[in-house]
Amino acid sequence: MNKKIVIAIDGFSSCGKSTFAKAIANRLGYLYIDSGAMYRAVTLELLRRGLFEDGVVKTSTLDSILKEINIGFSFDSSRNSYVTTLNGEVVEDEIRSPQVANHVSLVAAIPAVRTRLVELQRELGKMKGIVMDGRDIGTVVFPDAELKIFMTADPVVRAQRRLKELQEKDLNVTFNEVLKNIEERDYIDQNRDVAPLRKADDAVVLDNTNMTVEEQMEWVDDMVKRLTV
Ligand code: CDP
To answer: Is any atom of ligand 1 closer than 6 Å to the C-beta of 104?
Structure first.
């Protein structure tokens, strides 16, 4: 039987990390975990509780909320994929809303949030045979991952891809709004004090500006084969 490994995929927002990560996980029969969905779920909970004041999170009750919050993934046969759950409720669509996108990087910069979610992510990775994507997977969550990929793409191409995705869901946003959100999140993600987005020293870079998913799979195939025999 092939050796099971951990694959860590980090990179900028809307680079197609999750599409790529899912394709690798499917090919290998691995578990795929979208760590961004976990930050989005916490953000949704804080928005629902009205805990943002002038764009800042009121932190007094945060610790108890983080202790109570239950984030998971369950298989949805109608979508033929895993969906994110928050305290048992499927929130897959709500966490992709522009409102959550506009607040998530602020929430992800809060140290207590990161400590709690990293703990959950490591728990999920214990058995190996996992592909996880995010911002700090190769640097903080799984520094010993056998394969680390750092993804990037031109911001304009990224905004076009995200706009198409949002339009397919009938969400009414403009190209400029999407580009602004991507650039703001890139800035916050790279400049925060805790676990900023950066390439791990031992990560391989994948710029997919002009690549299809199939081309990306060809690119990764040999590496995966070598690491799993
Ligand atoms: O889908 P997209 O790549 O735009 O973002 P995402 O993966 O859903 O992540 C949403 C946000 O969560 C990011 O912009 C980061 O601020 C934060 N995040 C993080 O800080 N660390 C992670 N491991 C994953 C996401």
So the answer is: yes
What are the pLDDT digits (tens) for 17-58?
999 999 999 999 999 999 999 999 999 999 999 988 887 888
Domain assignment present for residue 1? The answer is no
- Host domain of residue 24: 6-212
pTM: 0.92
Residue bearing the CA closest to ligand 1, atom 10: 36
For 167-211, what is each residue's pLDDT tens digit? 998 888 999 999 999 999 999 999 999 999 999 999 999 999 999
Answer yes or no: is the C-beta of 39 below 6 A from any ligand 1 atom: yes
How many structural domains comprise the chain?
Answer: 1
The DSSP string of the chain is: -PPP-EEEEEESTTSSHHHHHHHHHHHHT-EEEEHHHHHHHHHHHHHHTT-EETTEE--TTHHHHHHH--EEEEEETTTTEEEEEETTEE-TTGGGSHHHHHHHHHHHT-HHHHHHHHHHHHHHHTTS-EEEEESSIIIII-TT-SEEEEEE--HHHHHHHHHHHHHHTT----HHHHHHHHHHHHHHHHH-SSS-----TTPEEEE-TT--HHHHHHHHHHHHHHHH-
The enclosing domain of 92 has a CATH number of 3.40.50.300
